[in-house]
Amino acid sequence: MAKGKLVFRKDRCKGCQLCVEVCPEGILALDLEEVNIRDYHPVGIIDEDKCTGCASCATICPDGVINVYIKED
Fold first, then answer.
1. 1 pLDDT exceeds 90?
2. DSSP state of 68
3. Could you tell me the fold of the domain covering 3-71?
């Protein structure tokens, strides 16, 4: 079964959380420890092993922060 690998351009994230809301697996969250160069808390992944590669997060992101790559088992 294919899995997804997410790559974030955290410096572009404005913390809108649209990706967090649409993730069917509930594996995205704001990183409250980190602040990016735009002074926002960027999004991060909680459990990459649960990512299915659906790309809902990348599709809804208005700033092109997320790239989704499919990795085969």
1. no
2. E
3. Alpha-Beta Plaits (3.30.70)
